[in-house]
Structure to design on (129 residues):
């Protein structure tokens, strides 16, 4: 009356597979890239119902910190109605749906903080293949 047990994958592998399906593939991001970051946002309407929508933030990456680590972030900056707006996105944030690369500027710095102080010249665009 012994029942044979079917070999199953260890639970750690199952968790990795489930996690791989949920997390989006993050492209190789570099300072100087103009990107569009799509993020899911939950809102409550007047009736108290929860509504979910996708909002994007488009701007130039001025800093990338901690590489592909768990705590890795990118700082994206744009000019909205003459006012500079910066947003820091953790790369492993579960609400980020995808990151689209729009343009790549030729830069010679790892951190582009000089763009905050009113850099007047345009950055040269590099062709993305």
């Amino acid at each position: 009356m012994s029942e044979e047990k079917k070999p199953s994958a260890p639970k750690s592998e199952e968790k990795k597979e489930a996690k791989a399906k949920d997390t989006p593939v993050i492209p190789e991001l570099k300072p100087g890239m103009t990107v569009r970051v799509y993020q899911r946002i939950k809102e409550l309407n007047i009736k108290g119902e929860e509504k979910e929508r996708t909002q994007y933030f488009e701007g130039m990456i001025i800093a990338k910190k901690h590489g592909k680590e768990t705590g890795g972030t990118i700082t994206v900056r744009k000019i909205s109605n003459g006012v500079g707006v910066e947003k820091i996105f953790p790369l492993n944030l579960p609400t980020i749906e995808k990151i689209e690369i729009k343009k790549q500027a030729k830069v010679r710095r790892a951190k582009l903080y000089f763009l905050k102080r009113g850099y007047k010249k345009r950055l040269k665009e590099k062709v993305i293949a």
User: Anything to note?
Assistant: The beta strands are 33-44, 50-65, 73-80, 83-90, 96-105, 125-126.
